[in-house]
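Help wanted!
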Amino acid sequence: MMNYSIIQIPSISSETGCLFVLEKQERLPFEIKRVYYITNVKNDAQRGNHAHKQLKQLMICLGGSCDIVLDNGVSRTTITLDMPGKILYIQPCLWREIKNFTENATLMVFASEEYDENDYIRDYEEFKKYVGQGII
Ligand code: T46
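Answered by r_m:
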C-alpha cells in the first residue's frame, strides 16, 4: 500500500487573484507543528532521498512545479505538484525523492512534528529493511 493521498482545495478567485484556504479540522489531517519551504533548487538537483518513521507531511508547490517520487519499498509512483490547490499528503514510511524543480518553484511543507533527525532513514537499504520487517 502506498500511504499518500492528494487533497484538492478550491480556489477563491476574483479578478484580483486566487486565495486558497487550509483550515483546522476541515482540510488538515494533523496538527501542524512546523512549516518550511524549499526554493532556488537547480533543475538537475534532487532533494529528499530519505523516509520518515513517524512524520506526516503536506506538500504544496507554490508557483512552478516539481516531481515527488514515492517508494514504499516495493513499488514507486511519481506525483507532479504543479498547482497551489493540489496538496500531497504523505504518511510515514515512504521513501521520497524530489526532483525536476522548475526555475520559479517553491515547495512548501507542513509537518506534524518538530525537526528530529532521529526520525529520518537516509539510507535506501536501511529503509527497505525497516519496511520489510513489518515495522509499519
Ligand atoms: C522532506 C523534504 C521535502 C533543519 O534544521 N530543520 C528542518 O526543519 C529541516 C526540514 C531541515 N533541517 C536541516 C537538516 C539538514 O542539515 O536542513 C538541512 C537540509 O535538510 P534535508 O537534507 O533533510 O533537506 P531535503 O530538502 O532533502 O528534505 C526536506 C525535509 O528534511 C524532508 O522531511 O520531506 O524536505
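OP: Thanks! One thing I noticed: The chain has a mean pLDDT of 94.
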